[in-house]
Amino acid sequence: MFEVHPVDERAAREIVAWTYGSPYDMYNLNPADLDAAASFADPANGYQSVRNEEGELVAFLCFGPEARVAGGEYLDGPLDVGCGIRPDLTGQGLGPEIIRLAIEVGSGLYNAHSFRATIAAFNQRAQKAAGKAGFVSVASFRRPSDDLPFVILERPTEAGR
User: Of 100, 96, 152, nearest to 121 (Cα)?
Assistant: First the structure.
């Protein structure tokens, strides 16, 4: 059971301090970067914190433009979703549950019926979790800043029901 709330300043500082091991270290942020923390806490950016029954921050969700990656072609339609799981909880099978939660929250907050996620191509773990939540690969591209490949996945309206 999870509680979802907009990311506040405390949660934002915690998220930017998360440290992932290689090859997931591309997701690491600089904890001293006040702009990154402010971005997570800005309600206009749509970040949501996910806490467990003990009140511990276990993940975050994001929706809309914040869930997109530069270089991808994003046509109107599906709601873009993204999530991050606390580093010590990754690889434990929590991904599909967090992705399903993102769909539930996105449906409620944005009245969305279809969803899109963009995942680094090397991140097979995240792609597998998305697949378990009903997402299928529809496109791929390379991010212009570093030529890193990404895949775009979509979850049709009735997927996973």
Answer: 152
